[in-house]
Structures are given as C-alpha cells and as structure tokens.
Amino acid sequence: MKWNSNLSVKNDKIDHQHQTLLQTLDNLLAACNQGKGNEELIHTLDFLAEYTVSHFKDEEAYMAANGFPGLPDHKAVHDAFIAEVGSLVQRIKSEGVSLPLVIEVNGKLNAWIIEHIMQMDMEYCKFIDSK
After folding, report:
1. Domains by residue range for the chain, with CATH
2. What value does the mean pLDDT of the chain take?
3. pTM for this structure?
C-alpha cells in the first residue's frame, strides 16, 4: 500500500509517521518478494515495537488537544496493537522465523495499519475538521 491523500489526517507530523509505517510494511513486502522476508521480519517487528509507541503517543496527544471524545477507545486499540506486536516478537523468539509466519505477519500488519488509518484515524480527523 502506497501513501495517498486519502490517508491524510490533515496533520503533517502524523501523516509523515503514517507514511513511515507504510514504507516499513512495503519494505517487508519487497523483502518477501525477493526471498528475504525472514531477515526483514525481525527488523520490521523491532522497528514497529518502538515506533508505534511514539507514534501512538503523538496521535493520542493530538486527539486529546482537540477534545476527541473517542480517545479512550482509540487508545485501547493502540494498546492492543502494541501487545500484538509484542506477541509476534515472542512467537519469533520461541518458534523462529518461518515462511508461514512471515506471510501471516505481513498480512496482519498491512491489514491492521491500513484499516486503522482509513477507519479509526479518519474518525478523529472528521471530528477535528468539524470543529
């Protein structure tokens, strides 16, 4: 999935962070297509484990500053994603990296991030636009 204006939440900092997340997932997909998905998966999950924490903090601060009433539910979804990434890291440590795991993680991450931006993030974007 490539960045396009339909994914914009009209906040430059958050849009840039979303672009970074999408580029990271695109890098994982490209590595998979080159037969290097196993190596890239660990890098991707390590990156997401750190980056999403700071991104979600920035996004939640933006929602709070604008009085978005859906912040508690949105934060709960963020927290669940952070836990999911942590769970995937633990699976890799216990099971090792395998092609089925690379495919599973790639699908989960892409679906979650795109769905999250296009649905949940657009809710606060619309709310802030309406103010």
Report:
1. 10-130 (1.20.120.50)
2. 92
3. 0.90
